[in-house]
Every structure is written in C-alpha cells, then in structure tokens.
Write a structure and sequence with these properties.
31% helix; 25% strand; 29 strands; 2 domains; alpha+beta; 689 residues; 16 helices
C-alpha cells in the first residue's frame, strides 16, 4: 500500500468513527472532553513502533488532539532514525545489526509519509514545517540505505540523481526488490564500497539543503516563517553525520589492513558480478567530484596519469598519521579523540548522565541541584576532517526538568523515551521532552516510586530482558524491585532484599530479570562485597554466589556478556573480574590511585573506568594484567589507554560530600561517543575512534 492510499484509509476511518463517537456521547453520557483526558493519559504508551503509528494517529485525530498526533510522528521519526543509524549503507544483508528487517524499514517509511499527509491535511502541521521536512529526509535516507544494503544500483543511481528527496512510492518499490548481484568479499572491494558512500553522503546532504530551501520558498507566503524554519532538523542531518563517522572508522580500519602495494584501487575491477554495472559506473561519475581524496604523494607522474581514477588512502589513513591518532590501540581498533564540552555549570558537579534510547541526541544530566535535559545537534563536516575534530560544530539546547529534585543517579529506558531519576526516598519516571515546532524542550513526570523506609537511591538499572521491571539500590544496602506503571500513586517495591549491611554501591541485571549482582560494604572487613542474587528464591536462600572482592567496599559493577563475567570497581582503586561460569573471582588488579567511581562497557570485552582523581582508563576484560598468585594479590593493571585530568573537583565538592573526579561514564553504541561528567561541573563528549 502506498503512503497516499494509507493516508486515505486513515481519513476514511476517522470519518466512520466520528459517527460512532457521537453515539457514545449520547447513549453512554461520556463527554468528548472526558475522552480527550483519557487519551492524554494513554499517549506515552502508544506508538512504540510504526505498526501502531497510523491507528494511534487516527485515534488522536478523531478526538482532535493534533499535538499528540505530531508527537507520535516525531517519536516514530526518531525511532526510524535510530534504526537507520545501525543500517550502515556499506553493510549487506536483509536484517540490520539489531534485528529489524529491511522490509520493516520501508513499512515504517510508508507509515510516516501517510501520517504526514493526514496531519498536513487536517492543518496540524504546516506544509513547510520542520517536522514535515524531517520526515522527508528520513524517508529519502531510508530508501538509500535499503537500496545500498540490497545492492540495487539502479535505485541508488536514481536517488543520487534527484535534486531533492522524493516521496515516490515507485522508488520504494524498486528499493525493496530482491538483492542484486554477488558483491566481492575481499578487503579491497569492501574498502572501495565504503569510499563510494563517503563520496555519496555529501550529495545526500546537498539534497537535504535543497529540499529545505524548496519547501520554504514554496510555502513561505502560506505559513509563518517562525514555524517553517528549524535548522536543527533541516540543515544539519544528524543521521548523515553518524553514517559518515562510522564509515570513516571502517575506512581507516580497512586501510590499515591493506598493504601499500594494494593502492591505487580501481573501482571498475571491484564491481559485483551479475549486477547493473552501468548504473554503478554512472553513480561513481556523479559523485566522483566530491570524493574525499588524499594527495597522490606516493604516485609518480606516470602513475598519476595512468591511475587518474584510482583510489588512494585518505590523508588521515596514512600510516604515520594513523599511529599519531591511535598510539596504543591500533590492534583493538578503539581509542578516544579530543573531547568536546557539551555542558558546564560552574560551582556544580555532574552526578549522572543518560541517553534517550530512541534519540541519541537527547541527554539528561543530574547535577548537585536539579536535573537538566540537553538536545545536541551537530552539522555534518565536509572535506578531509580528522575524526577527532568532527565534534567542533555542536549546538546544545537545554531545558530544566526540575530544580527542586536532586537526583543521584539516572537510567534510561531501553525501548521507550523514558528515564528514571533516583533521589531521597523516591524514584521518578520522566518522559523525554520534545522541541515541538522549534519551541523549548518540555519534560513530563509520568510516575513516582517510593522507598519503604526512606533512604537515598544510589543507583538503578532496568532489566534488559523484561523492560517493564527495574531495580534500585540505596545507601542502606537494600535492593528494591518495581514494575513500571503510570498514575498518581507512589507504589512500593514488589520485592526488597538486604544485600549489604552497611552501604550499597551499585547493581546490575545478569541476562535475566531475576538474577542480579550487587556491590557494597558490610559491617566488617573481609565480608562479601560482591554478591549474586536470585530474587525468586526466599530471602534466606537468595544469595547464590559471592566473593570478598573489595576490602573497603565496591562502588560500581557492570555485566560483560561477551566474557560471561562481572566487572566491579572498589574504594581502593582496584578492579576485579568475577567469572559467572565458575562462580569465583578470576582477576584483581590495582587500576587507579583513587576510588573507582564509574565503569562502562564499550564494545565486546572493552571497558572504560574512571576514578575520584580524574583519570580515565580503557581495559580489555579478557586480559587486563598478568595472573596473580592468589585471589588476594593486587597487582598493577595494564590499561590499553589512559587519559588524565578528565574531571577536577568542583568548588562545592567539599560541602556536598563528593570526592570530585569523574562520577559518571556512558558509552553510546549508536553514536559512538563516550560521555563523562564529574566534580568540575562539565559534561564532556569523547569521539570513539
């Protein structure tokens, strides 16, 4: 079904249901304002993905709740952009890296276009509005991603030849056809294909800018200019920036694995067999003038003339420059670039940070006083810009969620635009705010959860398997479990365990919603500071494994599924690894000179750690150091990377009981950034190379 047909079906459904609504009002005595109020309460639970978008739009359109319709479209657009960030154009296959079929992407595109037609038709959206243009951009980029993933070069060429993004359903049909040809699997062929996209992305960016200019010029006399222009969505396509960043990382990795004798590479010899090679050749010719080139310093004049169209490594991929950017982590393929300051509150300290799972541009920061939401937008760099300089063009929009609520920890939902904020004797559930039609961000408090005996929430985690359940640990050592619910009541936890007698530090779920691990401090030295619990068992039998990991207590813990282990940091600066298969401590080493206050897994078995002195280190969980003689030996670790003076102590640190340094780390797998915040009141964003 085309977008126009789907929009017509929605309008027809709204017309038919309007008569039923009149009958309900007359026979049941339920007024329309009452129905609108009920629909307002249901809004956060609707439209978790594109299959619910059109029914939800019809539901709210029937009740004339146009603002909720627009929020649903924007939320689904964010979700589709998040999915597309995982469907890199150079990858091949029918399913992206997180399991969504490519046909599902095209269905989501059709639903978005149909919803846009409905909202524009009912006057809820201006024809040149920011959200209208954003849907157009994501529609075009979805077609390009699917066409490239399926090696449909005729569709790729047609998309690159368009002056502006198109909503043509015939183009969607061409992109959704079967996979074309067999692409060579050599490193050379993969490198050429990635370089093709590095040339094509600037073309897509110019199309986005031309589309914005066309929409504003065509409708400037019909709509308010203040509503028709929002450069955050129209002129700075974040999805293209994410693609560009990932492609450059892949390009650098492949270039380091190819020998000097492999260059220059001839694109003509890398074409897939049995495909429309003429279309791909034409596409190369269109984008060739925008290719990111390096000087042909290694080629003689004769070689340059005979290989005029050959592909050489980019300038930042030269061996000497690669070693400069990646001094210690070339083998692992991961390091950090120069950080960019996203947020700074003088005299404050950053307690925690989290990211919207559906929109990595939206962040929440917990300070000593108040919780703040940030929305980050960045323009797409052009030309040969080194990876560690790409974060220079960043703009941050800020809103204040609550100045009165002091949150010590944050945790974002994995499937919904919600986050938890834990404070004194209460956990609050907030919905991420939206900058609708260029207005300020507006957050919404959805629910509150009360600790039975007061106490301060130290940390929280949402179950990765059952996303309707979350747990918290407080400073008295109690672990509490709740189920998500909305409403004005403040429910008590359905389960509560005394895990540590003196102080709770952190907790994490272990591959299920019933098995969790905790670290903390008990009454006396030598007691179990790292514990594994089965919450389905009676409290007296719930402890299934434990070890004396930290003499002065543990501060943080993460579950490394790739290594089947738990990684925890302690007050003396030590890090330990607890083997889940053998149920015993496997490794213990001296990692930092001060207390380890934050841990986050990067990818696979790589883990970042940060301490109260402001140092940041990268470890390989599988081999952090040499084996000690016994579990009690604490030997020096061997980090893969180390960065000093990340966060210094703020002015208010002695008065609020913090030790300064780095308090929070968060690794964004979708945008490949590391976020750090601490005692200097700064939130820093580190590009992961």
């Amino acid at each position: 079904m085309s977008a126009a047909d789907a929009a017509a079906a929605v309008n027809a459904a709204v017309s038919r249901l309007s008569g039923d609504l009149t009958v309900i009002e007359s026979q049941l005595g339920i007024s329309r304002p009452t129905l609108r109020e009920l629909a307002h309460d249901d809004a956060p639970t609707l439209c978790r993905w594109h299959l619910q978008l059109l029914p939800s739009v019809a539901y709210f359109a029937l009740l004339e709740l146009s603002e909720h319709c627009c929020q649903l479209v924007e939320r689904t657009t964010q979700a589709l952009e998040h999915e597309l960030a995982h469907v890199l154009p150079h990858n091949h296959g029918g399913v992206n890296s997180i399991g969504l079929p490519l046909d599902g992407i095209l269905e989501a595109r059709t639903s978005l276009l149909a919803a846009r037609l409905v909202l524009v038709g009912m006057g809820a959206l201006p024809k040149a509005g920011a959200l209208v243009q954003r849907v157009g951009h994501v529609s075009h980029h979805a077609l390009y991603s699917v066409a490239c993933s399926r090696r449909n070069f005729a569709s790729v060429l047609a998309l690159l030849q368009q002056l502006t993004p198109s909503d043509d359903d015939a183009m969607a049909g061409a992109s959704s056809s079967a996979t074309h040809g067999a692409w060579p699997v050599s490193l050379e062929a993969r490198y050429v294909w990635i370089r093709f996209h590095l040339c094509a992305l600037p073309t897509l960016e110019r199309q986005a800018a031309a589309y914005h200019a066309h929409m504003v010029a065509a409708h400037s006399t019909k709509v308010d200019q203040a509503l028709s222009i929002d450069t955050r969505f129209c002129c700075e396509p974040l999805l293209l920036s994410q693609w560009l960043r990932s492609l450059r990382l892949c390009s650098r990795d492949l270039a380091s694995r190819l020998s000097d004798g492999s260059f220059p590479l001839d694109p003509a010899t890398m074409l897939p067999t049995g495909s429309d090679q003429s279309a791909l050749r034409t596409a190369w010719a269109i984008i060739g003038e925008h290719e990111e080139r390096s000087p042909l310093a290694k080629a003689s004049i004769a070689e340059q003339s005979s290989c005029a169209y050959g592909i050489w490594p980019l300038e930042q991929e030269q061996p000497e420059q690669t070693s400069q950017h990646l001094p210690r982590t070339v083998a692992s393929g991961l390091s950090l670039g120069a950080p960019h300051e996203l947020f700074h509150r003088k005299g404050e300290f950053v307690r925690a940070v989290c990211e919207n799972a559906l929109n990595p541009c939206q962040l929440v920061v917990a300070l000593g006083r108040g919780v703040h939401q940030l929305e980050v937008s960045e323009s797409m760099p052009t030309g040969d810009v080194p990876q560690d300089e790409m974060a220079a063009q960043v703009a941050v929009q800020q809103s204040i969620t609550s100045d009165n609520f002091s949150a010590r920890c944050l945790c974002a939902h994995t499937k919904l635009p919600l986050y938890l904020a834990g404070g004194d004797s209460v956990v609050q559930c907030w919905q991420f705010g939206q900058a609708y039609q260029g207005q300020a961000l507006h957050d919404h408090l959805r629910a509150q959860y009360k600790l039975p005996a007061g106490g301060r929430v130290v940390n929280m985690r949402i179950s990765p398997v059952c996303s309707e359940q979350f747990g918290s640990i407080d400073d008295d050592g109690f672990v509490s479990l709740w189920r998500f619910q909305s409403g004005g009541e403040m429910p008590l936890p359905f389960n509560r365990l005394q895990c540590h007698m003196k102080r709770g530090g952190d907790l994490c779920f272990v591959e299920s919603s019933v098995l969790l691990a905790s670290v903390g401090l008990s009454q006396s030295a030598g007691t179990k500071s790292l514990c594994l619990w089965d919450v389905l068992l009676p409290p007296a039998q719930a402890l299934v494994a434990s070890c004396t990991a930290h003499a002065d207590g543990g501060r943080c813990i993460v579950h490394c599924s790739a290594d089947q282990s738990l990684v925890s940091g302690g007050d003396r600066g030590e890090i330990v690894i607890f083997d889940l298969r053998q149920r015993k401590l496997r490794e213990k080493w001296r990692a930092h000179p001060a207390a380890v206050q934050a841990l986050t897994l990067a990818q696979g078995q790589l883990c970042f750690s940060a301490d109260a002195a402001g140092s940041l280190k990268l470890w390989n969980v599988s081999s952090p150091c040499a084996q000690g003689e016994s579990d009690d030996d604490v030997i020096e670790g061997k980090p893969m990377g180390e960065w000093q003076a990340v966060g210094e102590q703020g002015l208010l640190a002695p008065f609020v009981g913090t030790k300064g340094g780095v308090h929070s780390l968060f690794f964004s797998s979708s945008s490949r950034f590391l976020l750090s915040g601490g005692g200097d009141g700064r939130l820093m964003r580190w590009p992961v190379l």
